[in-house]
Specification:
- The chain is of the alpha/beta class.
- The chain has 3 domains: about 1-115, Conserved hypothetical protein from pyrococcus furiosus pfu- 392566-001, ParB domain (Alpha-Beta Complex), CATH 3.90.1530.10; about 195-250, no CATH class; about 250-300, no CATH class.
- About 55% of the residues lie in helices and about 10% in strands.
- The protein has 15 helices and 7 strands.
- The protein has helices spanning about 1-20, 35, 60-75, 95-105, 120-130, 140-150, 155-165, 165-175, 180-190, 195-200, 205-220, 225-235, 235-245, 255-265, 290-300; strands spanning about 40-45, 50, 80-85, 90-95, 110-115, 270-275, 280-285.
- Helix 10 (about 195-200) runs parallel beside helix 12.
């Protein structure tokens, strides 16, 4: 207990050092930099801004509230990591969930490790640190890999060395980004797994991907069932049936083709629209659970 108190006191002392304009540390060569970098420092939470390079965009509200409750009882056990921007100004590198939960309960200070890093180093640190986490969804991981390729100019082999993953594993994640955005959203929301996505991606036609996706949700298909369904779709028998079905379908007006895509992206499901020759029609919005229904209901209410 005495050790923890000593650490907290040290953190407060270093915080005072950082608030002294005559000791504004901007590089590892600056005076007193060795006292700050690598040590736990208590920083004003309002002096920290969210990292724009953060690859994570999804934060589950319920788990965030649970973490906030834990922090209220026990404090922030694992410090966040920040980089120094300017005098008494910092940016998150990692620990955004702890930062958000702390703000949620109104904490004024938060323990942090301070690093001196440029934008590219900060981006790479944030991406690699987040990829190593266990609670990222497959699409978040895939987007992180893609950003390492696009913005850090890493090859898949270099990335394999940095994150400790096989090159084939990285390639499998990157292929998920070829899925229709609605299916990517379904994976992020936990409706389907990465295994389902890997099976669907073998179908190039995104409209057909969505048909398979809806069948997975409606029939609660396992990954093995999905693989079988995809094999059947790709077989000569199914290829001969699909064109026949399309030939008997009434030509869909252009305004419906445009509108149904927007509907589908908004609701996160493939929206079915049927239209008769006299111009009248019907819009069907599927749902797959009580939770999904309530989500759709909120979207409709928000649009009022």
């Amino acid at each position: 207990m005495a050790k923890a108190t000593k650490k907290q006191a040290l953190g407060r002392g270093l915080s005072a050092l950082l608030k002294d304009p005559s000791n504004d540390i901007q590089s590892v060569q600056d005076k007193n930099a060795d006292k700050v970098i690598g040590n736990i420092v208590e920083l004003d939470i309002d002096s920290i801004e969210v990292n724009p390079f953060q690859p994570r965009t999804n934060f589950n509200e319920e788990t965030l509230r649970e973490l906030a409750s834990s922090i209220r009882e026990l404090g922030v056990i694992q410090p966040i990591t920040v980089r120094k921007l300017g005098f008494n100004s910092y940016q998150l590198v990692s620990g955004e969930r702890r930062y958000r939960a702390s703000k949620l309960i109104g904490l004024e200070v938060i323990p942090a490790y301070i690093r001196i890093a440029n934008d590219q180093e900060s981006l790479e640190m944030a991406l690699v640190e987040n990829i190593q986490r266990q609670d990222l969804d497959p699409i978040e991981i895939a987007l992180s890999y893609q950003r390492l390729i696009d913005e850090i100019n890493l090859t898949q082999e270099q990335m394999s060395e940095r994150v400790g993953k096989k090159r084939s594993t990285i390639a499998n994640y990157l292929r998920l980004l070829k899925l229709d955005p609605i299916i990517q959203t379904g994976m992020r929301d936990g409706f389907i797994s990465m295994g389902h996505g890997r099976a669907i991606i073998t179908i190039e036609d995104q409209s057909a991907q969505l048909d398979i996706y809806e069948k997975i949700l409606s029939n609660k298909l396992s990954v093995r069932d999905t693989e079988e369904l995809v094999r059947n779709y790709n077989s000569a028998e199914n290829e001969s049936k699909v064109p026949a079905k399309k030939e008997s379908t009434t030509e869909t007006p252009e305004y419906i083709k445009t509108g149904v895509k927007e509907f589908s992206e908004y609701f996160g499901h493939k929206i079915d629209v049927k239209v008769s020759k006299n111009g009248k029609g019907k819009i069907t919005i599927p749902f797959h659970s009580e939770e999904d229904f309530n989500r759709l209901k909120k979207l409709v209410e928000r649009a009022k």
